[in-house]
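Write out this protein's structure.
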Amino acid sequence: MSIPRRRFLQGCIGAAVCGMPVTPVWARTTLGSAELMTVSDGHLRVPAPTPVGAALDSTPTERPCNITVLRDGDRTVVFDVGAGPNFVSSAGELVAALEDAGIAPADVTDVLFTHAHPDHFWGVLDDFDEPVFPEARYLMHAAERDYWIHPDTLPALPENRQVFASAASRLVTALDDRLEVFNAGDEVAPGIEALATPGHTPGHCSFVIHREQSSAVVLGDVVVDEAVSFAQPGQPLQGDFDPALAADTRANLLTRLAAERSVLSGFHLTRGGLGYAARDSAGRFHFEPA
């Protein structure tokens, strides 16, 4: 297995200093005859998730950006496209990471968006405003697409987030008729079902992958860390579009995942982001890497 360049799992620098082996950035598992993996788009340095009403801790923490990839026969499905070159210098590594995994841009057949925040959507076009994955279908929940292009969205956002709306609207417009929309419950690609998970954004969508007797759920930003999102899933968090709705969505989905023992893929989770939602004897959730 080749090691993707420049990006390693959270904590790998400290592990190297301590003489521990460095773990490759991606994680892998199988779903029937298909392969599910994550590759790294890099990382963000952002404040830790903060409950609504609590004082914001401005101390930045490093949050990985895991792109989920499903390879099944002649289909290669990529979930979200990372930040591209114009968001932060520590992200935008997706194309290089895919190349290290043996996947060329032209190999990608489907791109499914969980939502249109910068770290998930700004990597969709290249420097010439052409889609990075030239042969792919591009799909987004209709409610998510409509929210970002609505003229009332930008002025309603805080000033520091208005660029999110202006950029999302520009990218959606640039994709034009290449961007298909879907609704909750639709089969967006063979064996992949759209699961509405609103709250983080109005049209945030997760995806349930069904393969033979196995299943996995690509979460997007339903959960954004282990310490708060898993331990206190019902706690409304600052930064979500609708904190109360996002908390309900998070708690309900983690309950389902723990009961079904389905594989999950979390965009900002550590250790590659692939694993399970588990509960301890007190009923608290925790992330268990695959």
